[in-house]
Amino acid sequence: MESKDFLSDYIVVKALENGVTLFGLTRGQDTKFHHTEKLDKGEVMIAQFTEHTSAIKIRGRAKVFTKHGQIETGE
Ligand code: TRP
């Protein structure tokens, strides 16, 4: 059976300013936005990679924690 290991992956995003936006992008042939989520300063979202979501885009200043390490987005 095909491995579905990616399904257990998730990231943690902490907004460092108001209006940080997370975009979920579809898995498969077409890569399109399917979800937009706004976070205000201090808000945290825990976002999984799923059957429907293969990529996550973040706009604005945020701290992102992944199994690959920690990164700050924005300026
Ligand atoms: N319905 C989406 C899904 O199951 C919800 C989702 C999961 C999502 N991870 C995300 C939305 C990351 C935005 C960003 O795939």
Strand order of the largest sheet: 4-1-6-7
Quote the CATH topology: Immunoglobulin-like
CATH class: Mainly Beta
Please give the count of helices.
0
Helix content: under 10%
Order of helices and strands: EEEEEEE
Poorly predicted regions are none
Can you tell me about this structure?
This protein starts with 9 loop residues before the first strand and ends with a strand. The protein has a four-stranded antiparallel sheet, with no helix packed on it. It has no helices and seven strands. The protein has a single domain (5-72), classed as TRAP-like (Immunoglobulin-like, Sandwich). It is mainly β. The chain has strands at residues 10-15, 20-26, 33-39, 44-48, 53-59, 62-66, 69-73. Tryptophan (TRP) is lined by residues 22, 24, 35, 37, 47-48, 50, 52-53, 56. Residues 22, 24, 35, 37, 47-48, 50, 52-53, 56 line the site of tryptophan.
Notable characteristics:
Immunoglobulin-like, 0% helix, 4-stranded antiparallel β-sheet, 3-stranded antiparallel β-sheet
Secondary structure topology:
Blueprint: E1 10-15, E2 20-26, E3 33-39, E4 44-48, E5 53-59, E6 62-66, E7 69-73
Antiparallel strand pairs: 1-4, 1-6, 2-3, 2-5, 6-7
The site of tryptophan (TRP) has 10 residues, from strand 2, strand 3, strand 4 and strand 5.
